[in-house]
Automatic annotation (TrEMBL), chain B:
Keywords: Acyltransferase, Autoinducer synthesis, Quorum sensing, S-adenosyl-L-methionine, Transferase. Its EC number is 2.3.1.184. Transmembrane segments: none annotated. It is an enzyme of class 2 (transferase). The lineage of its organism: Bacteria, Pseudomonadati, Pseudomonadota, Alphaproteobacteria, Rhodobacterales. It comes from Planktotalea frisia. It catalyses: a fatty acyl-[ACP] + S-adenosyl-L-methionine = an N-acyl-L-homoserine lactone + S-methyl-5'-thioadenosine + holo-[ACP] + H(+). Belongs to the autoinducer synthase family. It comes from the Bacteria. The keyword S-adenosyl-L-methionine applies. This is Acyl-homoserine-lactone synthase. GO terms for molecular function: N-acyl homoserine lactone synthase activity. GO terms for biological process: quorum sensing; signal transduction. Gene3D superfamilies: 3.40.630.30.
Length: 235, 211
C-alpha cells in the first residue's frame, strides 16, 4: 500500500482539523475499523483525532474509562508497541469495558503505539479492527512497521503544535545521512554507497533509517525524493 | 532469569535495584575508571536513568543482579546522540526502529552465560517491538566477550584510552546469530520467549479465552 499521499497531507497539516482528515483517510486506506491518535502536550492539555464514533467518545469520557482501559494503563510511561492481546484484561471492570467497546464498534483486535516527546509530552496511536486472530496476524505482519512509523509522524506533527516550541534540531539530516541520501539519489545501490562512504552496509542502513524517519517517509524511495525536493541534497 | 523492567517497575524490587546500580558503580567506576557519578547509596546513576528507561536484567537465583543493560528509543533523548555524536559522524540518529543500549554491565559473580542471555533478550526486543538496530555504548574490552558469545557489534568508533576506552557500535540480530547465542547462553529460544511473555504478555492468548 502506498501511503505517501497521506504522509504528504500529514506533512502539510497545520492544525487539528487537518490531522483528523489525514487519520480518516488512512483508516480507509488500511481498511480497518478505527485509527486514533491521542496526545497530552507538555502543558498537560489533551488532544485527539480519530475515527471512534462520537457516542463511544462521549461514553468513554462519561464513564471515566481512562482509569479502566487496559490500553491506557498498559501504555502509560512505556515506549514499546503493544498488541491488545498482551494486555491485562483479567479484571471484571476491564472485561466489561471490552465488551462495551466491541458493542460500540471499536473492534476485538488492536495495536497501540505509545510515544514520548520532550518535556513530558506523550501520545498513543491505535489501530483497531474486528476480525479473527489469524486475520489480525496477517494484517500486522504486513502493516506493523509502517503503522509504527506513521504513529511517530503524527507525534512529530503534534510536537510542532506545542506552545513556545523551540525549532527542533532533531529533524536535520546529519552529514552522514546527507551522504547516504545523495549516493542513493545518484542511483548507487547500497553496497556501492556503503563502499564509497567507507562504512559497512549495516551502518549505512542505520543512516538511511534515521534519514527516512527525519524526512517523514516510510520507504527509501520516498525519503530520497523528499530530500531532493527540499533541497537537502544536491545531485 | 531475564527480567524486563521499566525504571518505575524496578521500584517494587528494591534489592534487585540496589544490586544493579551498585554493580554498575563497581564496573564503571571501580573497575573501568569511567567518569561516572556514584551517589551516597553507592549507586551509579546518570540522567538517562531518570527517563524511565527499560532495563533488561539477568536476575540470579538469589534474586540479585547478575547483569543488565539499559534501553531507550532514539526518538527521545539518548546518550548516543547527546554525548557521542562525533563518533556517529556528527548530528544525531533518530528512528523508532533504532533503540540505544547503554550501561551494559556484568556483576563480578556473573556466570559466563549471563552476557549471552542478555543478548538473547535483546533479540526478543528486536523481534517483538520492531526494533531493527541497537546503537550501543560499551566498554571497549567487552568486544572480546561479545565475540565469544557470538554477537559481535560493529564498532563505529571509540573514545578514550586503556581501560577507560569507550566504544559506540551497532547490533543487529540474525536468526543464525540468535541460535548461536542461545547455545552459548544455555537458554532455549522457547525459554527466552517465556521470560519475555511473562513481562509483556503473550499474543497467543486469545482475548476470547479471557473475555
Amino acid at each position: 500500500m502506498d501511503v505517501d499521499r497521506n504522509l504528504a497531507a500529514l506533512e502539510r497539516a497545520a492544525g487539528l482539523e487537518d490531522l483528523q482528515a489525514v487519520i480518516v483517510d488512512l483508516c480507509e486506506a488500511y481498511r480497518i475499523n478505527h485509527m486514533v491518535y491521542h496526545w497530552v502536550n507538555s502543558q498537560g492539555d489533551q488532544y485527539g483525532c480519530g475515527t471512534y464514533s462520537p457516542a463511544w467518545v462521549a461514553r468513554y469520557i462519561e464513564k471515566e474509562y481512562l482509569r479502566v482501559d487496559p490500553v491506557i494503563l498498559g501504555c502509560n510511561q512505556r515506549f514499546h508497541p503493544v498488541d491488545w492481546k498482551r494486555l491485562d484484561w483479567s479484571s471484571k471492570a476491564a472485561r466489561l469495558f471490552r465488551s462495551e467497546a466491541i458493542e460500540y464498534g471499536v473492534g476485538n483486535q488492536g495495536f497501540s503505539i505509545p510515544m514520548r516527546g520532550p518535556n513530558g509530552q506523550y501520545a498513543l496511536f491505535t489501530a483497531s479492527h474486528s476480525c479473527s486472530d489469524d486475520e489480525w496476524q496477517v494484517f500486522k505482519n504486513q502493516h506493523r512497521r509502517p503503522l509504527i512509523l506513521l504513529a511517530h509522524f503524527f507525534n512529530q506533527k503534534a510536537l510542532e503544535f506545542e506552545p513556545e516550541r523551540v525549532p527542533e534540531a532533531s529533524r536535520t539530516l546529519s552529514p552522514r545521512e546527507v551522504d547516504a541520501m545523495t549516493f542513493l539519489a545518484m542511483g548507487y545501490n547500497r553496497a556501492k554507497a556503503a563502499d564509497t562512504m567507507e562504512i559497512s552496509e549495516h551502518t549505512l542502513r542505520v543512516y538511511i533509517e534515521s534519514a527516512r524517519f527525519k524526512l517523514g517517509a516510510v520507504n527509501t524511495t520516498h525519503a530520497v525524493a523528499r530530500a531532493m525536493s527540499r533541497g537537502l541534497i544536491v545531485v | 532469569m531475564i527480567r524486563y523492567l521499566y525504571a518505575d517497575e524496578l521500584e517494587a524490587l528494591p534489592e534487585l535495584k540496589k544490586s544493579m546500580f551498585q554493580d554498575r558503580a563497581d564496573q564503571f567506576k571501580t573497575r573501568l575508571g569511567w567518569d561516572v557519578t556514584v551517589n551516597e547509596d553507592g549507586f551509579e546513576r546518570d540522567e538517562y536513568d531518570d527517563f524511565n528507561p527499560l532495563y533488561v536484567i539477568y536476575q540470579q537465583a538469589d534474586g540479585s543482579h547478575g547483569g543488565s543493560m539499559r534501553m531507550l528509543p532514539s526518538t527521545g533523548r539518548t546518550m548516543v546522540n547527546e554525548h557521542f555524536s562525533d563518533i556517529l559522524g556528527g548530528g544525531d540518529v533518530r528512528s523508532p526502529e533504532i533503540w540505544e543500549c547503554t550501561r551494559f554491565c556484568l556483576s563480578r559473580t556473573a556466570q559466563p552465560r549471563t552476557a549471552a542471555a542478555l543478548m538473547l533478550a535483546g533479540g526478543e526486543i528486536m523481534e517483538n517491538f520492531n526494533v531493527r538496530h541497537f546503537v550501543g555504548v560499551f566498554d571497549a574490552r567487552m568486544v572480546r566477550i561479545y565475540r565469544i558469545i557470538g554477537a559481535s557489534p560493529e564498532v563505529f568508533g571509540s573514545t578514550g584510552e586503556g581501560r577507560a576506552k569507550i566504544s559506540v557500535g551497532l547490533w543487529s540480530f540474525t536468526a543464525e546469530a540468535r541460535m548461536r547465542v542461545s547455545q552459548k547462553a544455555g537458554i532455549s529460544p522457547a525459554l527466552s520467549r517465556l521470560w519475555f511473555e511473562r513481562t509483556f504478555g503473550s499474543e497467543q492468548l486469545a482475548l476470547a479465552q479471557i473475555a
